[in-house]
Specification:
It is a single chain. The protein is mainly alpha-helical and 375 residues long. The chain is built from 11 helices and 5 strands; from the N terminus they run αβαααββαααββαααα. The strands form 2 sheets. The chain has a 3-stranded antiparallel sheet with strand order 1-3-2, with no helix packed on it. Strands 4-5 form a two-stranded antiparallel ribbon. A hairpin with an 8-residue loop joins β2 and β3.
């Protein structure tokens, strides 16, 4: 992030982030589109459930899935100090606050993008599929006596009264209630709750350093191809100079980490429980079929993971930090950002190799000098 204040940020970079905000707002454009009305049959038991009052209203869902994560992420960013190894007690406070404001910006941008993408995909799929809800017949109030007049398919000759009818058979006068009856797939409540609560859980895991203990696998090929230690050097008077390794021995696997306290586990566990509860109410209230809820949950969880990683480092290795601000060259594309990243990685590897070679050379040189001294 630029350290000279807002005025020092290039206009091209500011424009790229304003474009991000504009893209976030596009998802709301499909909210009022009339969904497709899929034909149905009046003898289908899966759409014969009663129409009840929902446990979680749309307003409560918005507060829980969007407003609450916005507030919590803001408080966490402001209260917790940035996890940067270059920061210490001598660091300028203005630099720390600029970092906090940057992390606040990325936290909100990722969360809003998660919700906007969820809104876009949910409304697009609802309008495209037009699947009847489990309580459609209760909403529809169909004309039972004249269903043959509205038939567009079926096999009434084989099965008595089995007609495939269109939504024109419905006598429901409230068009909004009827249109909502054809919006079963996928579950919006499930998608939005997991998009918001899933993002919040990932954010808390990153900020508070909660990760499950992990031990990387060591391939047998790498161990078998390891370079053997050189033999010890013998001096003229019979003394032996042991070989000095270039790197200290690795610790035992069990001493590499420890199980985190359960108190940290409760932080991300609470938003997960909230998402599960909201999702379960949609099945309890006869608003969605099981497949609608499962697909919506996976969609919301996947979008939360994607948007979190778009603006934040990995939970395990990132220390709760956000990616740096874009450069002028990479404002509207990968540009130099990816190239500089690759170059820096290559440079670190080369410097590491040179350092190890230098250490090996010093060890060999020291051993040779010791041998010559004893001679």
């Amino acid at each position: 992030m630029p350290t000279g204040g807002l005025r020092s940020i290039p206009k091209r970079v500011i424009a790229s982030y304003l474009l991000d905000c504009a893209i976030v707002a596009i998802g709301a454009g499909l909210w009022n589109v009339t969904p497709y009305h899929r034909p149905f049959t009046l003898t289908d038991p899966s759409i014969s459930f009663p129409h009840t009052q929902g446990t979680i209203s749309t307003g409560v869902l918005f507060v829980v899935s969007v407003i609450a994560p916005l507030i919590i992420t803001f408080v966490v960013v402001i209260v917790l100090p940035p996890k940067d190894p270059t920061f210490n007690s001598q660091t300028n406070k203005s630099l720390i606050w600029r970092r906090k404001l940057w992390e606040w910006h990325t936290a909100w941008l990722g969360l809003c993008l998660s919700f906007a993408l969820s809104l876009f995909f949910v409304q697009a799929l609802k309008n495209l599929f037009g699947r009847p809800r489990p309580d459609l017949l209760s909403r529809c109030d169909p004309d039972w006596e004249n269903q043959a007049n509205y038939a567009i398919g079926g096999f009434p000759q084989v099965l008595n009264g089995f007609y495939l009818v269109s939504s024109t058979i419905c006598r429901q006068t409230d068009q909004a209630v009827l249109n909502d009856g054809f919006s079963s797939f996928p579950s919006g409540h499930a998608t939005y709750s997991w998009a918001g609560m899933g993002y919040l859980a990932l954010f808390l895991c990153a900020k508070f350093g909660f990760t499950v203990p992990y031990l990387p696998m060591i391939s047998s090929s790498s161990s078998s191809t390891a370079k053997p230690s050189p033999p010890a050097l013998s001096t003229a008077n019979g003394r032996t100079l042991p070989h000095t390794p270039s790197s200290p021995p690795s610790p035992a696997p069990r001493s590499s980490t420890a199980a985190p306290p359960l108190l940290l586990f409760l932080l991300p566990f609470i938003p997960i429980c909230v998402a599960i509860y909201i999702t379960a109410t949609r099945f309890h209230d006869f608003r969605h079929h099981p497949g609608d809820i499962i697909f919506g949950s996976l969609l919301g969880l996947g979008l939360s993971l994607f948007t979190f990683r778009l603006y934040h480092l990995p939970v395990r290795r990132g220390g709760g930090a956000s990616w740096r601000a874009r450069s002028v060259e990479g404002a509207f594309g990968l540009g130099d950002d990816r190239k500089k990243s690759d170059d820096s990685i290559t440079g670190d590897v080369e410097m590491g190799n040179m350092s190890r070679e230098g250490q090996d050379g010093k060890v060999d040189e020291g051993a040779s000098s010791g041998l010559n001294g004893h001679r």
